[in-house]
Amino acid sequence: MATLELHSIVKRFKDNTVLDDVSLAVDDGEILVLFGPSGAGKTVLLRLIAGVLDADAGRIVIDGEDMTGVDAEFRGVGMAFQNFALFPHMDAFANIATPLEARKTPRDAVRAGVESVARLLKIDHVLTHRPRALSNGQKQRTALARALVGSPPVLLLDDPLRNVDAKLRFEMRLELPRLLADRGATVIYVTQDYKEAMALGDRIAVMGQAGIRQIGTPEEIYLQPAGLDIARLFGDPTINLLDVRPSRDGQGIHVALSGTRVELPAAMEPSVGRACVAGLRPETLHFVKAGTKGAVPVTIEAETPLNEKTVTLARTRGGREILVSRPAGTPGPDHGEAFLAVDAGSVLMFDKASGERIAAGGPAAPRKRATA
Amino acid sequence: MEHTSLIERILRGIALALVVVFFMFPLLWIFLMSFQTNETILSIPPQLFFTPTLQNYTALITGKLTSAAGTLDIAFMRNLWNSVFLSVTSVAVSLLLGVPAAYAFARHKFRGSEDIAFTLLSFRFAPPLLVLLPLTLYFQQLGLANTYFGLVWVYQLICLPLILWIVRGYFEDISADVEYAYRIAGHSWFATFRKIALPLAGPGIAAAGLLAFIFAWNNFVFALVLASADKQPVTVGALAFVTASGIQYGQIAAAIVLSIAPTLALALYAQRYLVEGLSLGAVKG
Amino acid sequence: MPAVVPTARRRSGLRISKRALPYVLSLPALLVCIGILVPFFAAVLYSFQRYRLSQPWNRQYNWGENYLNFFTDPGFWNTLRVSLVYAGSTVVLELLLGLGIALLLQKRTRLNNFISIMLLMPLMTAPALAALMWKLMTNPGFGVLSYLAGLVGLQDFRWASSPSTALFTVVLVDIWVYTPFIMILLLAGLRSLPTQPFEAAALDGVPRSFVFFRITLPMLMPYILTATLFRLLDSIQQFDIIYAMTQGGPGDTLTVFQVEAYLNFFQSTNVGRSAALLMILWVITYFLSFVFIKNWLRLRERARGEA
Lengths: 372, 285, 307
Hints:
The structure holds three protein chains of three kinds.
Chain A: E1 4-13, E2 16-26, E3 31-35, H1 42-50, E4 57-62, E5 65-66, E6 77-80, H2 92-102, H3 107-120, H4 136-148, E7 154-158, H5 166-183, E8 186-191, H6 194-200, E9 203-208, E10 211-216, H7 218-223, H8 228-233, E11 240-244, E12 247-249, E13 252-257, E14 260-263, E15 276-280, E16 285-288, E17 296-305, E18 309-316, E19 321-327, E20 336-342, E21 348-351, E22 357-359
Helix pairs in contact in A: 2-3, 2-4
Chain B: H1 6-33, H2 38-42, H3 55-62, E1 64-67, E2 70-73, H4 76-107, H5 113-125, H6 128-142, H7 148-173, H8 176-184, H9 189-218, H10 221-226, H11 234-245, H12 249-269, H13 271-278
Antiparallel strand pairs in B: 1-2
Helix pairs in contact in B: 1-12, 3-12, 4-7, 4-9, 4-11, 5-7, 7-9, 8-9, 9-12, 9-13, 11-12
Chain C: H1 21-46, E1 49-50, E2 60-61, H2 65-71, H3 74-104, H4 110-118, H5 120-124, H6 127-137, H7 144-151, H8 166-192, H9 196-203, H10 208-235, H11 240-246, H12 257-266, H13 271-306
Antiparallel strand pairs in C: 1-2
Helix pairs in contact in C: 1-13, 3-8, 3-10, 6-8, 6-11, 8-10, 8-11, 9-10, 10-13, 12-13
C-alpha cells in the first residue's frame, strides 16, 4: 500500500560510520528482508525509516512523500522490536490498542480491532495480562499485534523471531508469510537467519560493511552471490570454498581438483590465471560410480545424517575437506574411496583477493557441459 | 562463617548492642524527656520511670506557655507550618523543573548536557554561604528578603541536584525502545513522556521527592540567613526557641520530637530508596 | 479488520523541533541555576573588595588585600586548623566506625536489616536539631550525659562549653549523625560484592585477616572512596552542628570556615573578609569534588549496569 525509497542514507555514531550511502527502493506490497550479521546496521536502518533516529544525510521517501526529519508519529509505519518493547505498565490489550488510540479511534472500533488481530495471532485469551505475565511467545505475538493493528502501509519487523524458542519460530515462519500477504503492507523484515530470509523475502538485501552488499531475490542471492562473504552466509551446510587457479588449454577452461581435471564453462574466462576461490554448494555435488568421466576421487571421512538430508565429509587427494549433501534416504558411500561429480555450471568463482564473484554460474545457464 | 566460635558471637553481640545504644539512646532520651515535667527533668539522678504528661505538647500546640511567671507566646506551630510549606513547595517546584530536565539529560545527549548536569551537581558541594551571603543583599534589593518565594527559590539548591540525578538514573533505566514503540504507534513526544516515561520512572520520582523533602526539611543554614522569625522552619525556630523559653526543657524536647518525627517517618517509609538517594544514585540498595 | 485510517499528518499543535526539545525541557531548571550563579560571582567580587556593611561609603576594590591579610592573621590560621582537624577527625572516625558496623551487619538476617534501618534515624535527624538534642543531654544541670560523666569520675566535664572539650563534643555529634551514612553505603557495597572469591578463600582455609585486607578491602575501595570524599566535602563545610551547639565558641575554639564567614558577615559586617574565606573554602571543595565526581561516576555506572 506504499512504496518506500531510501536515497543515499548516511548514519554515523561518533566516528563509526554505520551506514554509508545506502539507497534502496521497496515496491508496494513487497516483503524485503534485510539480512546480515549483527552490527551490520540493519536495526539502525529500520530505526531511520521509523523516524526514531535521524540520518546524517540522505532522504527517506514513503509513498512519494519525503519523510526526512518528520517525527515518528507522522510516518504511518508499524514496527515490531526484537526485544518486543512492550509497555510494562499496560496489559496486552492496552499495548495492542496504542496505535488505534493515537488516532482517536472510537472505543468500539478499538475493541473490535484489537480483538480481531488478537484472534488472528491466537492471543485473545491473554489480553488482560501484563507483559510480565506473558510467555515469550505471547509477548512476541503481542508486539506483532501492536505493529499490525493499525494496518500501517509500511511494516518494519526487527528480527521478531529472534527471542522466541525454536518451536515457535518454526510455526511463525510458516504463519508469517500468509499473515503479511493478507495485510498487503510493504514490509521490511530484519533477520540474521538465512532460512527465515529465504522463506519470507520477495527480495533480500544483504547488509555488510556499512551498506547493502547485494540485493535480489532469494534465488539470486543463493545462486549468484556477489561475494564470498555472502555465499558463506547462505546455505546449510555452508558452501565449500577451495583455492584454485583456473587455466586454459585447447580443450577449454579447467581447474584441477584431487588431481582430476574439472571443466569450467566458457563464461569463466576472466578467472583464467588468477588466484581464485571456487565455491561448490554441498548439494550440487553428487557421488558417482568409479570410472565416470571427470569424477573426482575423494576419501570419505564421516557421515552426519540430518533430518531431511545426509551430509558427508570427504577429503580430496590434496587433503582439502569437502562437504557433500544429499537427500536423506538416497544411497551413498559411507566409507573408503568414492567419486564426486562436479556440476560445472553451478561452480561459483570468486577472486581471492577481493572476494568478489568473477563469472556467472547458475543452473539457468544452458551451457552446462556433460561431465556426469 | 557458620563455624564462628561462641566467644566471637558474644563479642559481636556486645559490639552490636553498644552500637544500637549509642545511636538510639539520644532519640529515646529526648522522646522520654518530652513527656516529663520540668521537675522530673531537673531531678538528679535522671529518672527512667515517671508519670508521663502531655503538657509540653499541649503548650506547643496551643501556643501558650503558662507558668508561674505568666504566659508566654510560643510561635512553634508557626515554625512547623513554615517547615511543611517550604519543604512541600520546594519539592513540588523542584519536581516540576527537575523531572523534565532529568528526562532531557537521560534521553537526549545534547551539546553541553553533561556539563550542565555536572554544574548542577557541583551546587550540591559548594559552600552554601558563598551563595547565601550575597543573596541576602540581593534579596533586599529585589524585595525577596524574607519571602516564601525567595526561600523556595534558594531551596532549589538542595532539591534540584538530588531530583535531577536520581530521576535521571531512573529514566536511563527505561528501555529507549519502549518509548520508540509508543512514538511509532503515533503518539507525540509529550504523550510518550506522560504515558510511558513518567509512569515507568514513577517509583524513582516518588523516592527522589521524598528524599528532597527530607533534606529540605532538615536544612538549617538557608533559613537562618534568609528568613526572619515568621518565615523560619523548625530547624531555625527550635534554636530560637531554646533562647526564648529559657529553662522550659520539656517543651524544647517536645519541639524537637515534633520537628524530627516527620522526616524519621518518611525515611522509614522510603528506606528502600535511601541508599540510592543519599549517594545521588551512585549506589543501589 | 479496521479500515485503513489515513495517517493524520498533523504538524501543528505542541510540536517542538527535535533539536530544541532537550533545551526546552531543561531550560527552566537552568534559569533557576543561573539565578544562583549571580550571587556566586558577586561573592568573587566581594572577596576582592574592602566592604563593610557598616561603612558602605568605604567600599572599594583592594584586590588581593583580603587574601594577603590572611597570612598574618592568626584568626585565619585558627579557622584553617580547626576546619581541617574537624573534617579529618570526623571522617576518619566515621569511616572506621561505619566500616566496623557495616561488617557487623553484613549478613542479611532479619535482625541486621532491622538494625541497619534503625541506624538511619540519626542520619535523618536535622543536624541542627541533633545538636540541640545533645545540648540538652550535656546540660551541666540536668543532662544525662553530664550525670553519666560524673559517675565515671569526670565531675567537671563541661562538654561544649569548655574550650578543651568543645571540639570533642561537636565531633561526637557529627559522628552520631553521619556514621550511618558511611555505614549504609559500605553495607550496600559489601552486599553487592561477588561471593566466589570469599567462598574460594574459605575453602582454601585462608586466614580471615588476609581475606579482609587482600580481598574485602580492595573490592570495597570504590565505595570507601566515594563515601569518604562525600563526607569530607560536607564535613569541611560543617556549619549546622557547630553553630547550633556553640555558635563557634567558646571564644574562637570552633570557628570553622563557614561559621567564621557567617560571624564575619553578620557580626563584624566584614563582607570582604567573609567572601575571601568562603572563596578559599570553595577552592578546597572544588578540588575535592573533582576527585569525588570521578569516583562517584564509576560507581554510578556500575549501579546502572546492574539494573
